Amino acid sequence: MTFAGTLLAASLATPLAFVALCLLPAFRRRVFDLLPLAPLPALVAALIAPDGSWVLAPAPMRLVLALDAPGAVLLGGAALLWAAAGLYARAYMAPDPTRISFAVWWLLTLAGSLGVFIVADMTSFYLMFSLVSLAAYGLVAHEGTPRAESASLTYMALAVLGEAFLLLGFVLLATAGPTGNPLIADAVASLPTSPWRDATLVLLILGFGLKMGLVPLHVWMPLAHPIAPMPASAVLSGIIVKAGVIGLIRFLPFDQPAADWGTGLIVLGLFTACYGVAIGITQSHPKTVLAYSTVSQMGLIAAIIGAGLELGDAGVSRLVAYYALHHMLVKGALFMGVGVMAATGARHRTLALGVMAVMALSLAGLPLTSGALAKYAAKGPLGDGLAGTLAALSAAGSALLMLHFLRLVAKDPPVRADAVAGWGLLAPWLATAAASLLAGWMLFAPVTGDAPESALAPAALWDATWPLLLGALLAFGLARSGIRLPKIPEGDIAVLAMCALPAVRRIGDGAERLDAALRRWPVAGLALMAIMLVLGATLGAAP
Q1: pLDDT in tens, 172-206
Q2: Strand, helix or coil at 315?
Q3: What CA–CA distance (Å, rounded) separates 215 from 225?
Q4: C-alpha torsion 222→224→225→231, nearest 10
Q5: Whole-prediction pTM value?
Q6: Environment class of residue 386 by beta-carbon count within 10 Å: exposed (0-12), middle (13-18) or buried (19+)?
Q7: SS3 content of the chain, % helix, strand, coil (to 5)
Q8: How far apart are alpha carbons 101 and 232 in whole angstroms?
Q9: What mean pLDDT comes out for the span 389-417?
């Protein structure tokens, strides 16, 4: 086994070993001190072992680990955020008497989320994807309140639905390709000639799109993220949704143009980007706004993937991973920042609010931030046509949404006016915020092939600035107009559907009572049949 292969194996083995060691009372007492260490082998692997591989057992029972460029970018970002969030959780969860069970779910979710970036065979990918999906239930349900139970049940129902979509898609994919447990690359290579190509693509996009939160499969996100503890929200929104991103990168056939599917994914992605903003600005809780922001940002990533699929450009996967890394670190910092702001009194909030503003507006492409670099990189596949214009307008929507978020955070009352957040919260938050800025600049040239100076050209700076100005103008106009936005509940269409259930039941009950009454009165049934026959004859005789 090579050194690179050993690091990849350790990336999975370390968090799983920590879970097993939690059976020991002495380890359980110290598990929160060790949470930041669990993802470190993965971080080292991403930094020094790109293109590494490791194979355990021959086919068809094999487990194949491999790291390519998109996987390395996402693995490194995920490991970094898991480590920072683990350090944050150590302080945030200290008063929680049930934090040991939280740590077990945390480690299982960590293992699955890192595993999807490095496994290369279909069976192992499905197992890792299922692990991250199902184990995250424990993070969502941790609070144990009725609201948490409702959100976690909704999350689990949709997670199982997503697993069903993927299982069917994988069966069709494996049937058309090599037998046994094929490598993902080999199975995808046979997809363009498969008689079930379209059905397979539908199932894959549904399964991975649900994890990403593409509309209308997004409803778990605004329900789960606000109710989870703060460090769990950071990894749910920053990392867990990227399992869907790497799934689309791995399983869509980018080597050959698929204009129809690419265009469809662009349309779905841009609609999701706009929908997330439209619903997000009606929300009154900062974490819910961030959840809808993630919906919007995942929509834009889906549009970039669709552009690559439309062009048949496999190189787009690098740009997608780069954009996803930006969102991963920024969104993780924002969720941790909400906790920092809640623990910081009014006298000490200015600096913290300034950092939050930079992070929030980075999602809209604030110049010099990773957001500006990511949106600059995305201009290539999206182009200057309608898709590129709509993507730029979605950045203006993100600016509007993030200004709304900052207003909510600023007015959210702290615990005490003179309170100061401890370094257990501040250090991982600031480290994640700094990493989002540094990683964007360090990886820009290797990923895009352009010099970093190109993103500083006057035209590029203006392209990054005008959506911010437009978003600020919209925010100002909305505030001055006095328009009262509708109160849309968290989960929007899912909650509205649940609210409509009593009315649907009443209609059904009424129909049953009517049917029973008609059955007791045969003359009425015959009269109704006669009326239907007359209507049919009249319509048939009409010219």
Answers
A1: 888 876 667 788 888 888 888 888 888 999 999 99
A2: coil
A3: 16
A4: 180
A5: 0.88
A6: exposed
A7: 80, 0, 20
A8: 13
A9: 87
